[in-house]
Amino acid sequence: MIGANGQLGHELRFALASLGEVTALTRPDLDLSDASHLQANIEQVLETHHPEVIVNAAAYTAVDKAESEPELAVQINAHALQYLAEAANASGACLVHYSTDYVFAGDKPLTHQYVETDTTNPQSVYGRSKLLGEQLIAQYCPKHLIFRTSWVLGQHGGNFLKTMLRLAQDRDQLQVVSDQWGAPTSAALIAQTTTQVLTEMLAAPADDSRWGIYHLVAAGAVTWHQYAHYVISKAREAGLAIKINPQAISPINTKDYPVAAIRPLNSQLNTDKIRQNFGIVLPNWQMGVDMVLKQVLATMPLTTPVVVQQGKP
């Protein structure tokens, strides 16, 4: 498993252990940005460990910064994956990888979700690098699983939930984008679902029709503004010393919040395919947010004991 120290990698370490021995590699073990040595380093890792499955949780995820350093984003999110895919295919291993809602333009009507076969049209360097990575994996390794996800959160690493909690303690006003829609999806849910799918696919031949791309997000949809209000309100109820009143979180349109990279307005991903092929019904986004919020609040000074009411299943 590559990218073991990341937000998703932390959860994958535990979830994948049910399938067998997990070799968790961090950046010093295998640096996907090291173009000149990467192919040889991958071959050495495979010769040492002989994996049945290669899970890549490493990625370049600085969406705005990618606009000013596209070569690095493309190296990590795309070119490195060709070497991984070729090595996996040559060794008979399957390759698991994670992609993003940013491969779509995000201009579908909000009444519609994106399905796996919809036309891709990324609007940012980050999105284009992730799409190229998908294409290279599909070209060089038939036994692959690519999970497109969105708005990932977890106890480890940086994410929107943690940023909102930090800002809410320091500020009495916040402006949050209110016209981008998606599903906050916990790293734990992604890791658990990955393990469920792999349990069925480990012994599958290369021509099994279930290899391919899947959308993997929590159920439901929310705006960043609604998400921020939910998190801050829950944290306040749980006893975190919040400076801001949740009602003082102001909605703002994307066009009035300038950033380097274009974001999709509609990031709603349809998950019917993973349900039909593996019987997996994904829970509402509130459940994952409540779980992570409880974990994060347990590490913060509270005025009262932590009590986070769970969202509906």
Automatic annotation (TrEMBL):
It is an enzyme of class 1 (oxidoreductase). Its EC number is 1.1.1.133. Binds 1 Mg(2+) ion per monomer. One of its GO terms (molecular function) is dTDP-4-dehydrorhamnose reductase activity. Keywords: NADP, Oxidoreductase. Pathway: Carbohydrate biosynthesis; dTDP-L-rhamnose biosynthesis. SUPFAM superfamilies: NAD(P)-binding Rossmann-fold domains (SSF51735). One of its GO terms (biological process) is dTDP-rhamnose biosynthetic process. It comes from the Bacteria. Its cofactor is Mg(2+). It catalyses: dTDP-beta-L-rhamnose + NADP(+) = dTDP-4-dehydro-beta-L-rhamnose + NADPH + H(+). The keyword NADP applies. Residues 2-296 form the RmlD-like substrate binding domain. Transmembrane segments: none annotated. GO terms for cellular component: cytosol. Catalyzes the reduction of dTDP-6-deoxy-L-lyxo-4-hexulose to yield dTDP-L-rhamnose. Belongs to the dTDP-4-dehydrorhamnose reductase family. This is dTDP-4-dehydrorhamnose reductase. The lineage of its organism: Bacteria, Pseudomonadati, Pseudomonadota, Betaproteobacteria, Burkholderiales.
